[in-house]
Amino acid sequence: MAHSRTGALLILPGKEDLSEVVHAASLQGLVSREMIMTIFWRDNPVHDGAAVVRGRRIDEVGVILPLSRRDDLPSFYGTRHRRP
């Protein structure tokens, strides 16, 4: 993916309850190289969101995370760089 300059944002939840922030398409697919490459393929409708990985499964895809409220970040930062 680095060779094709394809980014991927994977969420590996801890003990936090993500139900308040995760509203996305359910997938329930096994984690594999091919699965991750397919999810983040630029023509896939869910590629711009994150994927939630729980154990060996990808549970949700196309997850749009809450943006930071910080106002000191450069305007050229995309959503993947704006963390709370």
Main beta sheet: strand number and arrangement? 4 strands, mixed
Q: What number is the mean pLDDT?
A: 83
- Indicate the low-confidence ranges by residue numbers: none
Terminal Cα separation, in Å? Answer: 26 Å
Shape: globular
DSSP, total strands: 4
Oligomeric form: single chain
The fraction of residues in strands falls at: 15-25%
Task: Give the spatial strand order of the biggest sheet.
Answer: 1-3-4-2
Radius of gyration: 13 Å
Briefly say what this structure is.
By secondary structure, the protein is mainly beta. Helix content is 8%, strand content 24%.
Describe this structure in words.
It is a single chain. Helix content is 8%, strand content 24%. The longest helix is centred in the middle third of the chain and has 7 residues, at 33-39. Strands 1-3-4-2 form a four-stranded mixed β-sheet, with no helix packed on it. The protein contains one helix and four strands, in the order ββαββ. The model has no long low-confidence stretch (mean pLDDT 83). The chain is mainly β.
Write the SSE topology.
Blueprint: E1 10-11, E2 25-30, H1 33-39, E3 50-54, E4 57-63
Parallel strand pairs: 1-3
Antiparallel strand pairs: 2-4, 3-4
Characteristic key phrases:
4-stranded mixed sheet, 1 helix, about 80 residues, globular, mainly beta
